[in-house]
Every structure is written in C-alpha cells, then in structure tokens.
Amino acid sequence: LRTGIAEVLRADLPIVRTASPGGRPLIYLDSAATTLTPEPVIAAIAGYYREVSASVHRGKHMLSDIASTRFEQVRAETATELGAAAREIAFVPNTTAALNVVASGLRLRPDDVVLVPLDVHHSNLLPWRRTARVRHIRLNDDATVDLDHYGELLRGGPKVVAVSHCSNVTGRYAPVREMARMAHEAGALFVLDAAQSVPHGEIRLAETGADYAAFSAHKMLGPTGIGVLYGRLDELDPLLTGGGTVDWVDLDGARLRDEPHHLEAGTPHIAGVYGLGATLDYLRGLGWREVAAHDRELAAELYRWIEQRPHLAPLGGTGADGRAAIASLRLPARVDADEVARLLSDSYSVMCRSGKLCAQPLIDTIGDGRPVLRVSAYLYTTPDELRTAFEALDEVLSMVGVPVG
Ligand code: PMP
Question: What pLDDT score does 2 carry?
C-alpha cells in the first residue's frame, strides 16, 4: 500500500493525535459519510475569519475585495481541476443542494421521465420524484448497472438520466462515459452524483460527458457546508432568489445575473470556499493519480479482509475491482448492525456507519432489508488500522454469538 500518502496526511490530521476516545487511538472508517480534516484546510477556514471576515461581491472596500478575489480564484481553480470553465461552477452547500438545484431548475413537467439506477442516494432520487416520474434502472447481481435494461428504458424517451458515479453503499463505479453517451443518443440530459468519486481521484468531471455533476468538499478532506455544482448553469432556473442573484431590481421586476451567480442566492459560505481551495491544493499536492491509485490499493486491502470472513456478506459481492474503498456488510441473522457499530465505537474506538445509508431502495432490494455495517476507508487509513478494525469486529461478533472461525 502507498502508505506514504497516509503518513503524510496523518501528520497533518490533528484529530488522530488529539482525539483519543476511550483512551485508544481513533480508527476512523466512516469516510464515505465525512472525512477527517487536515491542518491546512482548518488554517484556511480560520484564516478567512481571522484576516478577512467580510462578504463577497457586495462592497467596494478592501476586505470585501480580498474575499471576492479569493472566492473567484477558488472557482477558477475548481474549474481547472474539473476541466471546465469558471462560469460552469456554482458553489452550493452540498451535493444534495446541487441536485435539488438541477432537478428544480430544468423545468420538468410532472409526466416527464427521469431514469435513476437502483443504487442512487436519496439525494439523487427524492429531488427528481418531486418534479417528474422516476423509473429505476435495474442492477446486475454484482450491483453494477444493468446496461441492457438501461438501453430498454432509454427507448421510452426520458428527459434526464441521473446516476451515482460511485455507490456510497457498494463502492461500485458506474460506466458513466458510456451511460452519458447512451443518454445523449436518446436525447436525455445526463446528471452525475460525483459525491463518492471525486474524493477518490475522479476529478475530471467535464470529461465524463455529464451535463451536470455535483460533489461535496466534506467527503474529500474539506469543510462541511460547501459543495460544487458543475454544468450548463445558464439553462437552470434558480431555486432560490434574492440578494446576489440579480443585477437590477426596480418596482416592477428584476434582471437575473449571468451564470453562475444567478444560482448563488444570499451570502455564501465564504470560509467554506477558502477551505475548498485549500482542499484542492492539498489533493493536487498529493497528486490526483496517486490518490486514485492509493484508493484502489485500499479497496483491495479492505475486500481482502472481508473475503477472509465468509460470515460477512458485502452488498454487491466480493472482489475489489472497479470499486472504491467502501464496503457495506450484511451481518449474520439476528445480529444488529447498529449495536455492532456502537460496540466497535465504544469498546474499540473504531468508527463505522450502520443503517440504510440513505439508499433504502437498494438496501431493501439487494440486502435483506436490515441495516448494514459500512466500512469506508480514505487516504489516511493504514493497513494496520484495517487489521485492527477487523479483529475488533471478530471480537464483537463472537461476543454476540457469531462463530467467526
Ligand atoms: N450522494 C452520495 C453518493 C453520497 O454518498 C452522499 C453523502 N452520503 C450524498 C449524495 C449527499 O451528500 P451531502 O450530504 O454532502 O449532500
């Protein structure tokens, strides 16, 4: 494993030095929910409040100029990383907000059809249900998208196809370039939820062919409350209106600002944008290719530990190929995943997620409807931590009566 990356990163993570829940070292395996935050990102956020603390695009004074310049610089840097133009990048609170902006902004009619694979996150399902008719694309036995079924559904003339680039449950990547091409041939827009793929190095979103894509900084070492919406923003009606979205208002009406500003209503999370800028600098410093390669190695390591334990059934099957370092485990009958997560946390300082992972249609279909235990690693995870975590899981399972061999 390229532990070099983990070591560099761990030296920058205050929480692995200071947080010692229960007096044991923290083993954080809930990175698909939110990642740990390195010092340079914390410093950028604090630096905004310490040294600037003024609003953007509102005034003519020096501090507002400094904030506005940095804000637009981060937008330009984000665009460069994605292979896009700055006007194609809007800052939003998170992936969920971005997908709501797209779903509401496209002016869909109630009988328009939107296709989503069964593995989408609720954030890429419920916004579409609110505005259109949703049809689910089936999955194969290994939880990859059934492209034959997708092809069939495309013949029905959907307006939009909305896909998870990487599943937050199974860690499987979707063949998005091919899916985008098929959607476009059928006359549909292609929307990509990149919340789990960008963190693992898939940053060149403009090259996927997606018309729109969204991700959140907090899943890639960055702050909470700031995310990115990429795409043909000029074609979206704003979800929110108000200050910042217009350049002229009189007694009769208003004139919307050009994209992306018409989508950024109200005072934005400026500190968050500073933090996002530091996050991109940090990941660029590690190298996007290195980040992706490291994740593949981590996924192989993670699934190796799982495959040694036949009583753990990962959703989407075993094998790490085409997967991020995310695994959701169906535990043996009568074992409560929530209780296991609680015991791992309280007795071993191992932090894992349990539940239905905001993907209940998937869990209920390919799981058995019970909550699962999700183990998700990130750049700072070491092989030793995975070993310790799986040994802890063995102990917890044997405590609740599962023979773990
Ligand atoms: N999509 C996927 C695939 C996710 O994993 C998540 C976060 N769990 C989201 C969307 C939502 O992200 P956020 O909570 O940052 O809006």
Answer: 60
State the catalytic residue, choosing from 92, 228, 358, 396. 358
The reported pLDDT for the residue numbered 214 is: 98
Q: 367: which 2 tokens?
A: 């799981």
Task: Give per-residue pLDDT as tens, 264-279.
Answer: 999 999 999 999 999 9
Can you list the alpha helix ranges (DSSP code H) found in 106-204?
A: 126-131, 147-154, 176-185
214 CA → ligand 1 middle, Å: 9
Look at residues 230, 205, 222, 335 and name the one whose alpha carbon lies nearest to residue 275.
222
| 35 Cβ closer than 6 Å to some ligand 1 atom | no
Q: Give the chain's residues under pLDDT 70.
A: 1-3, 19-21, 405
**Which residue among 121, 169, 215 is best mutated to probe the pocket of ligand 1, counting the most ligand atoms within 8 A of its Cβ?**
121
Q: Which fold has domain 42-285?
A: Aspartate Aminotransferase; domain 2 (3.40.640)
Q: CATH 3.90.1150.10 residue ranges in the chain?
A: 3-30+287-399
Omega prior to 260 cis, within 30 of 0: yes
Q: What is the pLDDT of residues 98-115, one digit of tens each?
A: 999 999 999 999 999 999
Burial 46-55 (b: 16+ CB within 10 A, else e): ebbeeebebb
Side-chain-side CA neighbours of 46 within 13 Å: the count stands at: 7
pLDDT value of position 77: 98
Does the beta carbon of 121 lie inside 6 Å of ligand 1? yes
Active site residue 352: no
The response to whether residue 196 sits with its C-beta less than 6 Å from ligand 1 reads yes
| CATH H-level superfamily of 3-30+287-399 | Aspartate Aminotransferase, domain 1 (3.90.1150.10)
Per the listing, tokens 């937008």 go with 75
What pLDDT, on a 0 to 100 scale, did the predictor assign at position 3? 61
* Residue 123 Cβ contacting ligand 1 at under 6 Å: yes
CA atoms within 13 A on the CB side of 12: 22
ipTM over 0.85: yes
Which tokens sit at 200? 């693992």
Determine the length of the chain: 405
